[in-house]
Amino acid sequence: AQSVAQPEDQVNVAEGNPLTVKCTYSVSGNPYLFWYVQYPNRGLQFLLKYITGDNLVKGSYGFEAEFNKSQTSFHLKKPSALVSDSALYFCAVIAGGFKTIFGAGTRLFVKA
Amino acid sequence: DTAVSQTPKYLVTQMGNDKSIKCEQNLGHDTMYWYKQDSKKFLKIMFSYNNKELIINETVPNRFSPKSPDKAHLNLHINSLELGDSAVYFCASSPGLAGTYEQYFGPGTRLTVT
Q1: Number of A:B CB contacts under 8 A?
Q2: CA–CA separation, B87 vs B109, rounded Å?
Q3: Residue A57: which of A91, A17, A7 has the closest Cα?
Q4: pLDDT digits (tens, 9 = 90+) for B15-37
């Protein structure tokens, strides 16, 4: 069965420091991987995706993610965190079908 | 110029009532979805339509009935509401069914059943 794990409920980082939000997946076949962000009382917004090709993908707001097939991971990163990055982040996967499986979400808190 | 819109934004109702949530997208997308987000922020797909055809129908009680009158609209009707139906319901759309497409989400409808 397909699954996505976000092992951290919350990530705390100081403004200006690099941030990483972790995601691992379990699928049969080649995965399509996505990151979305949700601000309070808002719908999810697409950040970036990996479909094929270069393992490092760049997305909105300075975020990037690295696809690692051997570790079945797709961690979200940003070199320098902003207070405005504080939000709920979801990793998602689609493989072998049309259904998107979302992780449980990781709350990012960036302290000024 | 909202891409994916939902009405109402908030819905408070009593157990046993029937209610509907409406969703419209002006992106020209072929595929639309309904998701349920529970109080722990866990997000789960309920239904998906492609060109008005039901594609995904998860293990959702048959009290929930989606309807897609055209590609731009996907409504959700809920009969005999229960306390456990309280959640935020999100509509989303994507250009097509292929897994390569990202989804565009509406602002959500917060349903509270008392």
Answers
A1: 53
A2: 8
A3: A91
A4: 999 999 999 999 999 999 999 99
